[in-house]
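Lecture notes, unit on binding sites. The following record was shown on slide 14. It pairs a sequence with thymidine-5'-diphosphate.
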Amino acid sequence: MLFCTILQHLQAHCITGAGNPLYCLLQKMETEEEMNRSSGIFIVFEGIDGAGKSTQVNLLSDALQRAGEWCVSSKEPTDGKWGRLLRESATIGRLSLQEEVDTFVKDRKEHIATLINPTLAEGGIVILDRYFYSTVAYQGARGLDVDTLDQSMRSFAPIPDVVLFIDIDSVDGLERIRIGRQESPNEFEKLDSLQAVREIFQKLAKREKEIVTIDGRQSAAQVHQDVADVLLGGVIKAKRCERSQQCGEVACPGRVDDKCRWWKIAQGFASD
Ligand code: TYD
């Protein structure tokens, strides 16, 4: 905001016009700030099976829609042809490891081209239940090299603004699948492999700055509250605050005029 104040000062003293490099630079920065405020937001939930990701995707998407945001939620594997093939393979017989990775990549590339990139380009919010971190963790746990997988995913897939890793123990995860969903665990979901998957997620979370760990043993409502805190203090503040991240001001004009989208989203969460 400092440069806006300087810009106003320059305008007030008629130090304006294309010839003035400082004025031009400040104007460019202000345009970038405008663009940032209306730009897309990419949010991903990750975690082992039974962590409660889909509940959190629904709670978040409801809160954002209440605040008037355009928000699209989706999942991987998708319901497209590659995603359906992967789901079938989990119940009727597993693909080879390399075939499995190749199919997740085909599914993801289609997802990026048809849903993720177009929504972000139009300024929408994309919320995903699983993304490439799942390939690194699950196919890494099955034996592929974690770092090679991670690099290869990052070579084509856009990096999310934030990844919310809902962390629970593998025993709790399987218990929730058996009791909560009344399902028997499928091939992707056996205990030992889930423990290995969790450890890879934890390793990634320590290393990658976009990943935030949330304690998944808490109630769904408390996990949702933690998600709200992370987003309101992070990417939503950076991209939806009317006055460029001065959200703390009670008398902020954006808030008083009910124009600030950050403030509307904060109220959307508060009315959960
Ligand atoms: P899941 O989120 O459980 O979908 P659903 O509940 O709709 O069946 O995903 C199915 C499984 O796919 C899950 O056990 C994790 C696994 N998976 C991978 O092994 N690699 C990946 O890249 C992705 C996205 C998922």
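Take-home: Residues 44 and 106 are 19 Å apart (CA to CA).
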